[in-house]
Automatic annotation (TrEMBL):
The lineage of its organism: Bacteria, Bacillati, Actinomycetota, Actinomycetes, Streptosporangiales. Residues 14-181 form the Nitroreductase domain. The keyword Heme does not apply. CDD domains: Nitro_FMN_reductase. Pfam families: Nitroreductase. This is Nitroreductase family protein. Belongs to the nitroreductase family. It comes from Nonomuraea rosea. It comes from the Bacteria.
Length: 215
């Protein structure tokens, strides 16, 4: 597979959540997904436990069922009043961006089951989820999921970080035969993308979020 000649800074700043631009009609070779996941396994993990597991869903029926759960969760999210498009309405520029994000998220919610590959990142949680701050657990999965997304971007694949399926985690676990002591952390739809341009997103200036020594 030919890897796009992206410098590290470009790769890191232009790996965007791809929703409307996912090509729902073009198959994604399993070998390519495996290549991206193999790279993701080089991510750091607490205590070198490597407790991650990856469910790659390509079956049409399973994708449709997961997509139905995701769509149901998305509709509840929009009805909650906390969806992205309802934030920052007092800021014309940022509000417009939020509405675009919300619109693309709604599109993905309608088509999640049509995406050719769904990758669910999981982590072993023997004894259940720990009480209190769970950063130590999820910090052993989420960097690897991001590495997968970066590897996919370099290979012409689009992805999006999603978690709304977790409202139906137990139902999806039963559907896919995921053991009770393995918890899902992220659902990454994966497909070739349409178009060929990505650019850095508008973000808050660093000085608005940077704290040196004290808050």
């Amino acid at each position: 597979m030919t890897i796009k000649p992206l410098a590290s800074d470009e790769l890191l700043t232009t790996t965007r959540s791809v929703r409307k631009r996912l090509d729902l009609t073009r198959p994604v070779p399993m070998d390519l997904v495996r290549e991206c996941l193999d790279i993701s396994l080089q991510a750091p993990t607490g205590g070198n436990r490597q407790g991650w597991h990856w469910i790659v869903v390509t079956d049409t029926g399973l994708r449709k069922t997961i997509g139905d759960y995701y769509g149901r969760s998305l509709r509840a999210y929009y009805d909650s009043g906390t969806a992205a498009g309802q934030l920052y309405q007092d800021d014309p520029v940022r509000g417009a961006t939020q509405r675009r994000v919300s619109d693309s998220a709604a599109y993905l919610g309608e088509h999640m089951g049509d995406v050719p590959v769904l990758v669910i990142g999981c982590i072993a949680a023997t004894g259940g989820l720990p009480p209190g701050n769970q950063a130590g657990l999820w910090g052993s999965l989420l960097p690897a999921a991001w590495s997968y997304m970066l590897a996919a971007r370099a290979r012409g694949l689009g992805t999006a970080w999603t978690t709304l399926h977790l409202a139906y985690e137990s139902e999806i676990a039963e559907l896919l035969g995921i053991p009770a002591d393995v918890r899902q952390g992220v659902l990454v739809p994966t497909a070739y993308y349409t178009g060929d341009t990505f650019k850095p997103a508008a973000r808050q200036p660093l000085d608005e979020v940077l704290h040196v020594d004290r808050w």
